[in-house]
Amino acid sequence: MLSAAEDFGVREHCEISLRTARGLDYYTGVVFECFDTKGRVSRAIFGGGRYDDLIESFGGQPTPAVGVAPGVMNSTLPLLLEEAGVLPEEAVSTDYYVLSVGDTRDVASRIARELRASGNIVETDVAGRSFGSQMGYADSINAETVVIVGEQDLANDEVTVKEMAGGEQTTAPVEEFPGDREQPGYEDFA
Asked: Is there a contact between 187 and 166 (Cβ–Cβ < 8 Å)?
């Protein structure tokens, strides 16, 4: 193993430890963890190991295997990005939150798909939360626009579009929304 690391020119970055143990019991051989070479990120960036019996334990054929996975993404990745000087300064924002009320999932999911296809960041509810819970969530993620797809809206062949920053709210024909608009605003439907 170390001779292969030597061949690839990374031997000086490898260390053998008899104390390293991964927390999963399906490993059958060597395990590994990889760390920041400067030692500024104290957690493993990624790790893994050999698990020859795993696939067979799920009913598959005996298959030799090696696996790897990233470390804790919500702590390790931002540290690495910051260390490399590429951590985005701006927080991720949501362009649209598609709020679905009642039996409207088919229309709401179509609208969400079309908005995503235009390059927008779109979130929508899949848990059947109440109108108020969904509006609270949309506010908490700083959604720029909320598209309300309610049973009453659909009965009127429309959707309600609410710009969160100013609170302006209008309606748009459901069959035409979102159309080719990338960022529909209040003025688009007036």
From this structure: no
